[in-house]
Amino acid sequence: MNYGGKLMLNEIIKWNKEFVKKRKEKELDRPTNSHASKEALIFTCMDTRLIGLVEEAMGFKRGEVKVLKNAGNSIRNNCDDVIRSVSLGTIMMGIKEVFIVGHKDCGMAKQDLDDIKNKMIERGIPEEEINKIDLKEWTGIIDNESENVKEVVNKLKNSPYIPKDVKIHGLVIDPNSGELEVIVEDE
């Protein structure tokens, strides 16, 4: 779908009307439990190549797992939102296993800080605001996909907000083939 710079909202709403109609005709519009039936959560990257791929490659279907995403599937210092979400999933929704899924060829391992800063300025972000932060930490740039997965597993395992009986595994997925590599297996 290329909209030539036009806002996509009108096309999305048009598409959605047909989508909903077809779901209703197939009786696929029945309520689904909001809790993960497999008691699992996936934390992965927001890379577009992973949409649907990660769950399918792991054998999960809609409604079976919680999925949490951010740029680079990283947990930055002093940014507790990922830990908060995983914690609430484990405490309030019965999540028993967490899968950290990084991926090969991650864009967050290829970013240049000067380029990011310049693009921020071009888009109207005041340079004085950018200079107030540690840009590498703020962006979540990673050096290595596998090392990032290990670091995220460790941060979750060492968080006082994650129950100690929760299993936390680390994997890396190939964004083309879907092949998984186990980096950390929690026993």
From TrEMBL:
Reading the lineage from the top rank, the first entry is Bacteria
Q: Write down the EC number.
A: 4.2.1.1
Broadest EC class assigned to this enzyme: lyase
Which cofactors are required for activity? Zn(2+)
Which positions bind Zn(2+)?
A: 45, 47, 103, 106
Which UniProt key words apply to this protein?
Metal-binding, Zinc
Q: Sorted alphabetically, which Pfam families does this protein's record hold?
A: Pro_CA
Q: Which GO terms describe its molecular function?
A: carbonate dehydratase activity; zinc ion binding
What's noted on cofactor binding? Binds 1 zinc ion per subunit.
| Reaction equations catalysed | hydrogencarbonate + H(+) = CO2 + H2O
Asked whether the UniProt record includes Membrane among its keywords, one would answer no
Q: Which family does the similarity line name?
A: Belongs to the beta-class carbonic anhydrase family.
The protein's name is carbonic anhydrase
The organism named in the record is Thermohalobacter berrensis
Q: What taxonomic classification does the UniProt entry list for its organism?
A: Bacteria, Bacillati, Bacillota, Tissierellia, Tissierellales
